[in-house]
Amino acid sequence: MKLSRLSLTNFRNFSRLETSVPENITLITGNNAQGKTSILEAIYYLSTFSSFHAERDRELINFLELKNPIAVARIVADYVKAGQKHQFEIRIIKEQSKNGKPRFRKEILHDGVKIKEWQALGKFNSVMFLPQMMKIIEGSPSERRRFINTIIGQTNPHYSKSLSEYRKGLSQRNSLLKNLFEKRGDQDQLNFWDELLAKKGAEIIMQRITAIQELEQFAASIHNELTRGKEILHLAYVPSFDPHKKDDGQASMMNATINRDKYDLKQIESAYYEQLQKNRTEDIYRGQTSQGPHRDDIEFLSNGINLGVYGSRGQIRSTMLSLKLAEMDWIKTKTGEWPVLLLDEVLAELDDDRRHDLLDRVIKTEQSLLTTTDVKLFSSEFLENAERWQIQDGEIIPSK
Ligand SMILES: Nc1ncnc2c1ncn2[C@@H]1O[C@H](COP(=O)(O)OP(=O)(O)O)[C@@H](O)[C@H]1O
Ligand SMILES: [Mg+2]
């Protein structure tokens, strides 16, 4: 998979950028606040259709442009996948609604045809690595859910569709729960939402079981290499509704040794449906759905120790590295293509050995873009293999 051309209009501090993209390695250099991260953000947006930095899409529109009643930020990208040329065009639009308030929306065009966001997912694959991603291991469970959703979504757009239908159903069910608490009424009104959540939820759980198991295999072997055989890495899926949970209410041992393969979709669906029914009284009392994929978690264990709780900075960094490299391998096996690798200022965070390991891998990938404020972190061999973009104030000055 290769990005061949990138064009940005009113995206962050780039009022206009038009560039071809080097075939292999691009090293993006420049001082702070010049636009290096924004370039990676624009590229990664083509894989996720949401920003890893911005709370809302509107933040991506250039400040000055945003002062106008109508404003558009645009990303246009040409890329080659499986030997075929494609183009994405994304428009983030500010317009005036009838009541005079600004309204924001986005349009996605693929090869000139307008498509929905879930249809657009999985077409352009990339893996992003930035220092803040340590949050995946040390942060709240929602960080880990976002991580796994992004990964699966990149290879399977139907997953993202199920996820969005699940979320809508969840919010409907929750409003109904609150309503039932305040006004009483017939609990059977919940049946429809319970069925929907069970159906979509089971799909999500199944996909997560498989993805986490497969990802673990890649990550464990890379991690073993990176730690020179010292650490054994496990990824453990900790589902909020666990089809393994015994009827006596005893939580099962939720570690990586559980083989979740033997469950099929229908079994999970009916078990989760039953559980939603059982939880009703309590859910009504709390005004929210207590169990389901919206409460799932993942544990990262090194030599049996939970890194989220006991991991050192160094361990968390190298685990993150293993995880990101595993993500590359996983996407490659799923799609047959190497995703584009995006690395934002990560080298400065790693020790010499890890830096070396990472750069070795970067050289082997098909295409990668890295940002840095400090070119000295790179070996001369690496620099020879890379094209260089110097960024200044939202403009690129290509140089070798
Ligand atoms: N919507 C926006 N419009 C214009 N400028 C923006 C917008 N969002 C961020 N910026 C500015 O863009 C600049 C580049 O940010 P960034 O890409 O993070 O730089 P770098 O990675 O080179 O340090 C910063 O000065 C930031 O304040
Ligand atoms: Mg930056």
- What would CATH call the homologous superfamily of the largest domain? RecF/RecN/SMC, N-terminal domain
* Gap from first CA to last CA: 23 Å
Number of strands: 15
Number of domains: 2
Number of H- or I-type helical stretches: 12
Strand order, main sheet: write it out: 2-1-4-5-6-7
Please outline the major beta sheet.
6 strands, antiparallel
Q: Give the distinct bound molecules.
A: adenosine-5'-diphosphate, magnesium ion
SSE pattern: EEEHHEEEEHEHHHHEHEEHHEHEHEE
Structural summary, described in words:
- By secondary structure, this protein is an alpha/beta fold.
- The chain folds into 2 domains: 1-125 and 337-400, Rossmann fold; 133-335, RecF/RecN/SMC, N-terminal domain (Glutathione S-transferase Yfyf (Class Pi), Chain A, domain 2, Up-down Bundle).
- The protein has 12 helices and 15 strands.
- The protein has a 6-stranded antiparallel β-sheet. Strands 8-12-13-3-14-15 form a 6-stranded mixed β-sheet, with helices on both faces. Strands 9-10-11 form a 3-stranded antiparallel β-sheet.
- The chain is globular, with a radius of gyration of 23 Å.
- The chain starts with a strand and ends with a strand.
- Bound molecules: adenosine-5'-diphosphate (ADP) and magnesium ion (MG).
- Residues 36-37, 344-345, 371 line the site of magnesium ion.
- Magnesium ion (MG) binds at residues 36-37, 344-345, 371.
